[in-house]
Amino acid sequence: MATQLRIPPDRDLSIDAVRALCLPIVVLLHALQMGISGDPPRAANALAHWQPLVWITWVGMIMPTFFIAGGFAGITTWRRMRGRGGTAGEYIRVRALRLARPVLTAMLGVLATLGIMAVCGADAEFLRTFAFRLAEPLWFIAVYAICTSFVPLMAKLHRLAAWPTYFGLAAAGVATDLLSRFAGAPIAPLNWLFVWLFVQQLGFGVRDGWYAKRPRWLLVALAIAAYGLMCVAVFGMGYSPDMLDNLNPPTVLLLLLGLAQVYLFTLLQPLIRRVVSRRRVLVVVGALGVYGMTIYLWHTVAMGVVVGVQLALGLPFPEPLSGAWWITRLPWILAIAAVLGLLCLVVPRLERLWPQERPGPMRLGAAVGATALLVGAVGWVLTQGYLVPGTAVAVAALALAIAWLTLGVPSAPVRASASAAPASDPGHFGGVLKRDTPPK
Q1: Segment 150-187, tens digit of pLDDT
Q2: CA atoms within 13 A on the CB side of 407
Q3: Number of structural domains, the chain?
Q4: Which of 348, 247, 335, 245 lies closest to 299 in space, CA to CA?
């Protein structure tokens, strides 16, 4: 088998590169946060009281970059699909289905792992706390599905009234945050929408080259200004300096961090492009792209497998942040990586068994309804954990959403459009690296 690199002309490899860089950071953070201690053992956030992490998050909290890259990919895919006569319902259907299928498979993998641990005699309360922590990464899937479903609308607003849209979203995010924080209004969850839609909109600007057209000194000044306003919020208004604390729900600091990151990314973009143009780097970026969804969703299963083996062998769990705990983090991370490597060989084969979606566009209302069902199912597991009675209903709801999206009913009038995104879709992890059999 020969590896052939096919790079579509409208694909910006710097976007793939930052996604590839951010993915291991997210997995590493989740692995380090998994703290297990006590007798009987319990699972908790091991880094909750590790003070250096607070300031590391000012650079290491890279979720805004994920949404910026998602905005770049989303508007690129939507414009291409619309150019072929595609509809908003068709776009939402394709994107939601690409999220829903891997999520259901991964959730079943987590449940199977927990079930095996329960049969082998793991403590019930430990499993409950452990299962709750395994569900935490699902927040990204729920929010990303919401933001993705807004791409056709937000792309239209970006085309017709770009600056009012930016300022409107920013104002809504700031007002929501301030009213929630200082007036006690129970509206903070609205910023799951306003803040992340704003950050996604920044990706639209990257796609159109807005920031790259600005002088470098201005980008530096704007990044410094964004961090300066973050300092004002922390030291003058009492916000937590920990960006992880500002994540759930998002505060104005995440909005400012998104601005800082889009300016810094633009400054580094020429360097990133030069580095990623090297064949070996591009192969690594492509591989992380191909297996990106598997790595993100299944690293929780990998942690479950490693913990299960550790329990079965009677190996101790050092107290989090102790010297022994830090020493054992390297083998812990390597063990998770090894299990993930095996899962990357198996999971894509399983996912290829999904039936092909019914050809033809889907009505917008139906696509939005199926996406809402997806978000609701994932949101339930995220907030309640895996080991609660309602999880079975949530899994069934997610399966129903997948069936609904696969059938694509009710269908919209057929127009000259493609019912699926092309393989080179920049929103799809597998668009850079392809393996071809050489001609005989």
Answers
A1: 999 999 999 999 999 999 999 999 999 999 999 999 99
A2: 9
A3: 1
A4: 335
